[in-house]
Design goal:
Layout: H1 2-8, H2 14-36, H3 38-45, H4 53-97, H5 107-118, H6 121-152, H7 154-201, H8 203-208, H9 218-265, H10 270-311, E1 334-343, E2 346-356, E3 361-365, H11 372-380, E4 387-392, E5 395-396, H12 402-408, E6 409-412, H13 423-428, H14 436-445, H15 449-453, H16 472-485, E7 490-494, H17 502-513, E8 520-524, H18 528-531, E9 536-541, E10 544-549, H19 551-557, H20 560-572
Parallel strand pairs: 3-8, 3-9, 6-7, 7-8
Antiparallel strand pairs: 1-2, 1-4, 4-5, 9-10
Helix pairs in contact: 1-10, 2-4, 2-6, 3-4, 3-10, 4-6, 5-10, 6-7, 6-10, 7-9, 7-10, 9-10, 14-16, 19-20
Length: 584
């Protein structure tokens, strides 16, 4: 845990960390000295010259005041380190997630990232300032007292040296007993959190299927799992507590027996024996503190591990050299050369080769699961090919600076996500530097102006979290405007009109064609109206290009695309006719 903490602390706070460690040692030494000074005080009080005790009381006062001062400075430094840790880790996680490969975002890793990001600053600050200092003090104080005991009575020092590792071993063993159960409990609570979020977001579907109660959904299973994990955690705590309790009693008997034996043999006077009994209590007291803090430390250890998991997540393997695209607003030529790609060992694209000419519009057609969206993801740079090459104007995409690569492409996703802000702000996400005129032109192209005209606040109307204040078709229009406002040379459209009716689909398709920016366009669609103006068609099935060519060439060939085209035209001509009785 300490190693993880050191890795997370920013460089500018490392000097403070060194000072923190040194002052922690000084604080422990002063507290050990204050306990051991009771021995000469009592010996002097019951000796031939009791007045000598005043000098030792003065030393005790000086040590105590010095400890207060050191602890105050230590707390101040701890807060500084805690705030630096909180500020740096939050920014580091946000920066890291933007350059982490999408394959890293599994369900487990996403849950870890969610919990790490949700960790509040008070938790991190409080860990360093209010938890770490007492823990270090409680861990080191018995060792410091043991060293000091050798200067009072080497026999008692030996007894302390024997008891110290015995107690620490018992404490560690008791913690190991509950650590596995605690990990299972944490995992169960994490799963419950994910299920509760899912349960809240899917209420519409759950209510429609009459599975509205938590017990009848996956949330019920997660609640049951949490209950079982909590019970196991509590049961595992019992043997750990018994083990540590027995070890503490044995250590107490060892120390008390040693002091008693030395007193009876005359090696220790009664005043020194009484003082050592008090010191013995101070020796054992920190172990109780350690036991009390162990649960909080275990939680903090989990928090630090989650923070470390996110801040050390793998990076996209991108080369940063001088080979850049010829300009973000220029339509490039894109080539796939024997590209292969798969998810978690499952192949999706197989030996795929094709070329997208500059300024052309290419339609990617095929059955669901054939790899169409994966093609767009590779062009957008969301994934890297596992074999083969993708070239942009002759330059391998792995040699393009990531920032330039992102500037090159604009994407319309099938299921767009809108942020909780205004319509104008969501459109400007595509190009933050865009002026009002550019935003309004994009709104007009995507027919968003029809939406804002009927809203009281116009383009300043808020869309709600995930765009819940708008319909599915309206959210799609805003996302299209967001893509069009970006002056990118490549426009990727993944079922952009799937949420629109036929009339709006035709108008949006025309709007994309009317886009004044010259772009290399790639469109995934299942409807004819969306691809009628395509210059080139790729028919994909099972990760392979079955056919490619112009619409006229493929329909004349009479292959898979021609069958697709025929079915689309047939379904487009369907009408509801009246029966013989005149009923519709």
């Amino acid at each position: 845990m300490i190693g993880t903490l050191i890795r997370l602390i920013p460089g500018h706070a490392r000097g403070q960390l060194t000072t923190y460690v040194v002052l922690s040692l000084v604080s422990v030494i002063l507290r050990a000295a204050s306990a051991l000074l009771l021995v000469p005080i009592l010996v002097a009080l019951f000796g031939s010259n009791p007045g000598d005790a005043w000098s030792w009381v003065g030393a005790l006062t000086a040590v105590t005041v010095g400890g207060w001062v050191v602890d105050m400075v230590l707390a101040r430094i701890g807060f500084g380190i805690g705030f630096a840790l909180a500020d740096t880790t939050q920014h580091a996680m946000a920066d890291r997630l933007t350059v982490t490969p999408l394959r890293w975002f599994t369900a487990d890793n996403t849950a870890v990232a969610r919990q790490a990001i949700a960790a509040s600053a008070p938790e991190l600050v409080g860990f360093v300032a209010n938890l770490l200092s007492p823990f270090i003090g409680a861990l080191l104080l018995p060792a410091a007292i043991t060293v000091g005991l050798f200067f009072v009575s080497w026999q008692v020092g030996v007894a302390g040296a024997i008891a110290l590792p015995f107690l620490l071993g018992a404490l560690a063993a008791s913690q190991r007993l509950v650590r596995k159960a605690d990990a299972a409990d944490t995992a169960a609570h994490s799963a419950l959190t994910e299920r509760l979020v899912e349960f809240a977001r899917t209420q519409q579907a759950l209510r429609a299927s009459r599975r509205v109660t938590a017990a009848r959904s996956q949330t019920g299973g997660a609640i049951t799992a949490v209950r079982g994990a909590t019970v196991r955690l509590l049961l595992f705590q019992i043997p750990g507590q018994l083990l540590f309790s027995v070890a503490s009693q044995i250590a107490l008997i060892l120390l008390a027996g040693t002091i008693t034996t030395l007193t009876l043999r005359g090696d220790l006077g009664a005043p020194a024996a009484v003082a050592l009994m008090i010191v013995m209590v101070r020796f054992l007291e920190p172990f109780t503190v350690l036991a009390d803090l162990s649960g909080a430390m275990e939680s903090s250890r989990g928090l630090l591990e989650r923070l470390n998991a996110v801040t050390t997540a793998p990076l996209d393997e991108q080369s940063r050299n001088d080979q850049l695209p010829s300009g973000e607003s220029r339509a490039p030529r894109i080539e796939f050369r024997s590209v292969e790609f798969g998810y978690q060992g499952t192949p999706v694209l197989k030996d795929m080769t094709f070329t997208l000419e500059p300024g052309s519009t290419t339609a990617v057609v095929g059955p669901s699961g054939s790899g169409k969206s994966t093609i767009l993801s590779l062009i957008a740079g969301l994934h890297r090919p596992q074999r083969g090459q993708i070239l942009v104007d002759g330059t391998d995409v792995t040699a393009i600076d990531p920032e330039a690569r992102r500037a090159l492409v604009s994407v319309v996703f099938q299921h767009p996500y809108l942020f909780d802000g205004t319509i104008a702000d969501n459109i400007r996400v595509g190009h933050p530097e865009a002026g009002d005129d550019a935003v309004h032109r994009a709104m007009a192209l995507a027919r968003v102006d029809d939406i804002v005209e009927r809203l009281p606040d116009g383009a300043m109307s808020r869309v709600g979290e995930a765009g819940t204040a708008l319909s599915g078709g309206e959210r799609q229009r805003v996302s299209i405007a967001r893509a069009l406002v970006k002056p990118a040379g490549v426009l990727l459209i993944d079922e952009a009109t799937s949420a629109l009716d036929t009339e709006n689909e035709a108008s949006i398709t025309q709007a994309i064609s009317d886009d004044p920016h010259r772009r290399t366009r790639v469109i995934i669609a299942h409807r004819l109206d969306a691809i009628r103006n395509a210059d080139h068609v790729l028919f994909v099935d099972h990760g392979e290009i079955v056919e490619q060519g112009s619409i006229d060439e493929l329909t004349a060939r009479g292959g898979r695309f021609a069958e697709f085209w025929r079915r689309q035209e047939t379904s487009a001509g369907w009408q509801i006719a009246a029966d013989a009785a005149g009923r519709a």
